[in-house]
Design a protein that fits this description.
Layout (H helix, E strand, L loop, with lengths): L5 E5 L10 H7 L4 E4 L8 H9 L6 E6 L1 H12 L4 E7 L10 H15 L1 H8 L12 H13 L2 H12 L15 E6 L7 H10 L4 E5 L6 H4 L1 H12 L11 E2 L23 H6 L1 H9 L3 H9 L1 H7 L4 H8 L3 H6 L4 H4 L2 H4 L4 H9 L3 H7 L5
Parallel strand pairs: 1-2, 1-3, 3-4, 4-5, 5-6
Antiparallel strand pairs: 6-7
């Protein structure tokens, strides 16, 4: 019997093992799972060394936020030991101008008014803007912060302010790497992770939908499913339950006997791929959004994070391509409310036919 892999889960600033509850439960059937404790440490290197000491031999390093910086440092210190790497909601650059002063304000707040005041100030910007009043989400996070101390916060802030420039080592990462980010992460945004993924050889980028910086608990199932898929655990035929990978697996024609020839099957996988296009199109039901679309289509599409391929399909009104990319005609037809076009023209475009031929051959009109 082959030896079970060892996974180390690496928490972020003021986070403890509770942040990883959903992912630990998902991974434990397939691997030995260890969780780092950085509460007493004040440097990224010291955290990385403590994580490497959690087990002997090869490791899968999975880090969130500060923990992902620790994971990258583990690769720098012991590249031969890290077999796979996952970086979630994080960054790669050293201290930014003005960062020390802003973080010092929070350190002083914790010492002057306590950890509850710190939690009330620090946590809301860490989650999806639409969930800042979600007590079910915020209460456990606040309890976690209250389990920490001002001294722990001060130590970890020191580690972050003195962090190494991780950007310099990205091109040397040789193990399979997954970069993951909440689409609505306001602290470490999507564009930052797109750059990271581009700098790491053969890295894969996964976007967690409807999530801010605390994706582990905001969308635990999406994160867990993405990890299981990347690590090769579980049923390889499982879908990713809302994870947008930007990649589409070829369809097995034998597995879809009811498919109409030359018509894309709008199954769950295709609907997940088309999440951005369909959400954008649904937004056109709002008059203000329709006006914004008319004024600047490109800017409107950027609100929803459309890829360049998706934007091109929408802006050229390539209905067939929009459908191929996961667009549901029920949704994308809302574009015609802004840019009037006959439904038969859309049908002809989707079928790859001239309009007159479509009317004659498909609708029996002369």
């Amino acid at each position: 019997m082959s030896k079970r892999p060892t996974i180390v889960l690496l928490p972020g600033l003021l986070c403890d093992a509770s942040m990883w509850d959903a992912q630990r439960k998902a991974l434990e059937p397939y691997a030995d799972v260890r969780i780092g404790d950085f509460s007493q440490l004040d440097s990224i290197e010291a955290m990385a060394r403590s994580a490497l000491a959690l087990a002997d031999g090869p490791l899968v390093a999975i880090g969130h936020s500060m923990g992902a910086r620790v994971a990258m440092e583990m690769v720098r210190l012991a590249p031969e030991r890290i077999t796979k790497l996952v970086l979630i909601d994080t960054g790669i650059d050293p201290r930014r101008d003005g960062e020390q002063e802003k973080r010092r304000e929070l350190v002083d707040l914790a010492f002057a008014e306590g950890m509850e005041a710190l939690a009330d100030t620090w946590l809301p910007p860490m989650v999806h803007l639409e969930r800042v009043a979600d007590e079910a989400l915020l209460a456990p996070l606040k309890d976690m912060v209250l389990r920490a101390s001002p001294e722990q916060h001060q130590r970890q802030i020191k580690a972050l302010l003195d962090r190494p420039n991780a950007r310099l080592g990205l091109a040397q990462i040789a193990c399979p790497t997954l970069v993951m980010v909440g689409r609505q992460d306001r602290w470490s945004p999507l564009a930052q992770h797109e750059e990271m993924a581009a700098l790491i050889p053969e890295a894969e980028l996964v976007v967690i939908e409807d999530s801010g910086h605390m994706s582990l608990v905001e969308q635990p199932e999406q994160v867990s499913q993405a990890l299981l898929r990347f690590l090769g655990f579980g049923n390889k035929n499982d879908d990713t339950h809302g994870v947008a990978t930007g990649r589409e697996e070829p369809m097995d024609e034998e597995a879809a006997p009811d498919r109409i020839p030359d018509t894309p099957l709008f199954d769950r996988k295709r609907s997940l791929r088309g999440y951005r296009i369909n959400k954008m199109a649904m937004g056109l039901g709002d008059p203000a959004n329709r006006e914004a679309f008319k004024q600047d289509e490109s800017a409107y599409l950027d609100r929803f994070g459309l890829t360049s391929e998706e934007k091109d399909a929408v802006m050229t009104r390539n209905w067939q391509e929009m459908v191929r990319l996961g667009g549901n005609l029920f949704f994308i037809l809302k574009i015609s409310a802004v840019d009037p076009v006959r439904i038969t023209e859309i049908g002809a475009h989707q079928a790859g036919m001239e309009h007159a031929d479509f009317l004659r051959d498909r609708l029996g009109k002369k």
